[in-house]
Amino acid sequence: MADMIKAGVMVASVAALLAAVAAPALANDPYGYRNSQVLLVSPEGDLLDYMPEEGEVVISRDNMGRRVLIDRFGNLIATEIPAETYFPRQRQARAPDAYDDFGAPQPGWEDDGIVTGAIPGPGVIDRQPLDEPLPGMPSGGPDMAPPAEQPPTRTVTPDIPVKSNLSQLEITALQVFLDREGVSPGVIDGKMGQNVNKALVAWQQITGETIDPNNAEDILERLRLSGGLAITSYTITPGDAAGPYVAAIPEDYAHKAQLPALSFTSTAEMLAEKFHMDEAYLRALNPGVDFTIPGTIIKVVDPGQTKKGEVARIVANKGLKQIFAYGADGSLIAAYPASIGSTDTPSPSGTVTVERIAFDPGYTYNPKINFQQGANDKVLSIPPGPNGPVGTVWMALSKPTYGIHGTPEPSKIGRTQSHGCIRMTNWDATELAKMTKAGVTVEFID
């Protein structure tokens, strides 16, 4: 119980933990929480920020065999979690910072940098043994049976939707881990959906391993080993704030053709794409932030390094709405969600080849060979830009007018249809294009 009490005095949230924010850790800290074996996590995902008094709780077990604190009414107060899940191993204690990585005051700090509030010293509170019910509780407590056998790890399959009980930040951690592994979940938005499900299946195919989308401890540990915590801080630069940006992107292609470039419309939109995020989620992580001010510190996810490799074959699975990139040895290198064709303008069947690759391309609209857009009946030259019809990349295929390309609406990838082409997020399309050369085969399967 001593280790649990040590962990309970820390004031930090899962958001801060994922953002690599250190809780107060003075060298003379009598609790030495960095050496603690466990932490107490509340049902809301926060580390317990108070010490339950004797008689308030009983120690029990959940269905995963973890020790839990239950109050007299049967409500879950906290769950015991291994500390190493959250804190990197073998880190030296250091003096605390007055502000976290995002510029917000650390809990317990005043403007003068002095820690306020008292932490009870050892021996102040007499605790019950872990496996002994507290006085006044029914014998055995609500669940004092020996821990049940651990359920088998679930193998995710494409046709079974993932139902997750993870928090939004834990789902974010899963999405970031998958993105770093080269199996794109699409936009990172803290939501469990089919793009995440498909990425999990692809990851299992690449590694031969399985991952349980409801096992937060395993996900966070894998994330730590893949390059660190999911959320980090970023300082908006003068270049970020300067743009160039356009006020808005018109729907009509004739109006698009009149713009000098189809640039981003805001710093927030640009940063969301830079960090593979849904723009609404970026704003939600940074409430009230003015993204136009250089020097502003914001929270973003850390998607890791761009995938490297040489693609020899691409498979476009229409049913899954997913792209698979294979190496010369037949191994799966990467996988991406995609919007592939539609009923009116279906994608090709069979096998074609990549003819050429263009980055930051313009787009020529021809209603006689393309789809019909609005009332436009003339050939239009649409300028390049991330908000252009084909985004930041165009990989022309040997079947005329068809290609693999980016999109101005990344949050719709895998959820909507295209005009016969393969549409991906700009960052995924760019990553794939840099691993691909002219002559690579693209096979369309149903």
Automatic annotation (TrEMBL):
This protein's pathway: Cell wall biogenesis; peptidoglycan biosynthesis
SUPFAM superfamilies with a match to the protein in the record: L,D-transpeptidase catalytic domain-like (SSF141523), PGBD-like (SSF47090)
Record InterPro entries: LD-transpeptidase, LD_TPept_cat_dom, PGBD-like_sf, Transpep_catalytic_dom
Residue ranges constituting the L,D-TPase catalytic domain according to the UniProt record: 312-445
Keyword Flavoprotein listed: no
Keywords: Cell shape, Cell wall biogenesis/degradation, Peptidoglycan synthesis, Signal, Transferase
Active site: H405, C421
Residues making up the signal peptide according to the UniProt record: 1-27
GO cellular component: extracellular region
Keyword set includes Secreted: no
GO process annotations (BP): cell wall organization; peptidoglycan-protein cross-linking; regulation of cell shape
GO molecular function: peptidoglycan L,D-transpeptidase activity; transferase activity
Residues covered by region (Disordered): 129-154
Family note: Belongs to the YkuD family.
Name this polypeptide is given: L,D-TPase catalytic domain-containing protein
